[in-house]
């Protein structure tokens, strides 16, 4: 967890350093959004923030999210965007990839069983539309597909001490709808 936190702080510090340089065409950007994830299970809430450097029509940075679908996880990821200008507004495409970190209930211990949940790969990709509302601010809407991998290991034992282990891998592919503010 410290490794991911250190990476985010390092990217954020580099972004601020580059944004402070007046000679550079690169600038600090932040995308903050909330939305819903829909799949086979009930619809769930999601929120995320991405911070990084925008250069011309490209954006690269790091992000962290809250994903409430099935098991609450905190995806930590690298974020990339490409904009296509349409007068004052723009269309954008995005790709995010990283790791899920299980937020709570990592290990549930019962009388005769223990269930341990581990995070896995996280990916998100799609497109959106950005509406400029201020000199350095925009509202955006996006739709995409997100993949979340989780692993659950259940260890059971009976009254006589016999043990059984069940190792289940879940791969959720879902639609995600977001609305947010970029500055």
Structure, explained:
The protein is mainly β and about 180 residues long. It has one domain: Porin, CATH 2.40.160. Helices cover about 10% and strands about 65% of the residues. The protein contains 1 helix and 9 strands; from the N terminus they run H-E-E-E-E-E-E-E-E-E. It has an 8-stranded antiparallel beta barrel. Strand 7 and strand 8 form a beta hairpin. The longest helix is centred in the N-terminal third of the chain and has 19 residues.
Notable characteristics:
183 residues, mainly beta, Porin, 8-stranded antiparallel β-barrel, 67% strand, elongated
In short:
It contains one helix and nine strands; from the N terminus they run H-E-E-E-E-E-E-E-E-E. With 183 residues, the protein is mainly beta.
Helix tally equals: 1
Order of helices and strands: HEEEEEEEEE
**What class do helices, strands and sheet pairing give?**
mainly beta
CATH class: Mainly Beta
Task: Report the biggest beta sheet as strand number plus sense, adding barrel if it closes.
Answer: 8 strands, antiparallel, barrel
Calculate the terminal CA-CA distance, rounded to whole Å: 28 Å
CATH architecture: Beta Barrel
Mean pLDDT reading:
84
Poorly predicted runs: none
Order of strands across the widest beta sheet?
1-2-3-4-5-7-8-9
Shape: elongated
> How many distinct beta strands?
9
Task: State the helical fraction.
Answer: 10-25%
What is the CATH third-level topology name? Answer: Porin
Strand percentage: over 45%
Number of domains: 1
Radius of gyration computed on alpha carbons:
20 Å
């Amino acid at each position: 967890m410290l490794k991911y936190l250190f990476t985010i702080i390092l990217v954020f510090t580099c972004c601020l350093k580059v944004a402070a340089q007046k000679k550079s065409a690169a600038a600090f950007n932040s995308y903050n959004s909330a939305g819903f994830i829909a799949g086979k299970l009930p619809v769930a809430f999601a929120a995320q923030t991405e911070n990084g450097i925008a250069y011309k029509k490209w954006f690269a940075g790091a992000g962290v999210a809250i994903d409430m679908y099935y098991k609450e996880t905190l995806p930590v990821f690298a974020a990339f965007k490409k904009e296509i200008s349409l007068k004052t507004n723009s269309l954008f495409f995005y790709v995010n990839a990283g790791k899920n970190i299980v937020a709570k209930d990592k290990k549930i211990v019962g009388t005769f069983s223990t269930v341990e949940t581990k995070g896995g790969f996280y990916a998100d990709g799609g497109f959106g539309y950005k509406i400029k509302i201020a000199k350095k601010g925009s509202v955006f809407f996006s739709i995409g597909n997100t993949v979340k991998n989780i692993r659950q290991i259940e260890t059971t034992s009976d009254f006589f001490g016999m043990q059984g282990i069940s190792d289940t891998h879940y791969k959720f592919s879902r639609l995600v709808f977001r609305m947010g503010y970029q500055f």
